[in-house]
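Side project, low priority. Logging it here so it doesn't get lost.
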Amino acid sequence: MVRLGREMVWLIAQESGPDEFIRRISDPVWFQSLGTVLAFDWNASGLTTILTAALKEAIRGREKQLGIFICGGKGKTSRKTPEEIRDWGGILALPTPKVDNLVYNSKMAAKVDSSLVQDGFQIYHHSFFFSQNGAWAVVQQGMNAVNQTARRYHWHSEKITDLVCEPHSGIISQAKVPVLDLSAQKSCDTRKISTELVQGSYSGLIKDIEIIRKHSSPLSQMVSFKANNNQATLLNLAHTEFYRHPVLNEDFSKSKYLEKILAKACDIKPENYESLLAMEGVGPKTMRALSLVSEVIYGAKPSYEDPARYSFAHGGKDATPYPVDRKTYDNSIQFFSRLVAKTKLPFYEKRKILARLVG
């Protein structure tokens, strides 16, 4: 994997430039295909961690030549991502603001996929790819401990106009699941009201929280009040919306830490939702609590739709989850076949790789 990965990265960088490699890495289908070409089982969660590690090792010592840099990885290595980015910033003599921005984007990608996309997958792998020109991509993966399935999240700097609204270039998953997606366009009102809540007084926010606490068992049958011209308006929450929802298992009545974080947020008064999310200590529970208040008290319903855009790479021959997309499939084969032919690998190795591609 390291030898072939080195050849692949080198050829793409030479032919199309480092920014094109970054763009392709941000495509879940292409990333999955690359893992297959480099001899890994396409339907395994280990593809993400091992492929990323193989690519990182493949370009070691050649990063400056290629103009491509890979930081982070699995587990403890993922937490070293900011340090690795800063180390490269020093080696390349990049301006401090540029380095700080790369670090910030890496941290925010991790926060969004753990605190805004609440799908039951715990992030355990985070890799940050960037070029000397400033293009960057994030590839991170989460694991669902209950059903032992993985989900991979992709980001690309060129696509992003707002870090907290529809920022992904794609999400690949083995199955769709119940999700509270606060990053969706449909959650715009939720983000707006959540921000307004912490920009107001702490006492006012706690009063809203108390309504949630009073009616928090069971949440699926919750009825609360919405201020409307000084009249009380009942808001009924459909049982289906909260079926298997994470907040069902939470007790907001016994969370001193939540109150501490909310007090801190109200004191700082973040200028926008992104600034709120970026605050130290703000995590999934804080964002869930604000989302619930926004919906129940103020009627701003967030998105409960799974944002996963890809399920498997090219479809299945049994039409599950959808029929094979022959055009995409053929384009992937042609692209990698051309690259393999140009590598300096021995002929018998090329033949084995090409056999995997068309097999």
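Brief comment: The chain has 15 helices and nine strands.
Revisit when time allows.
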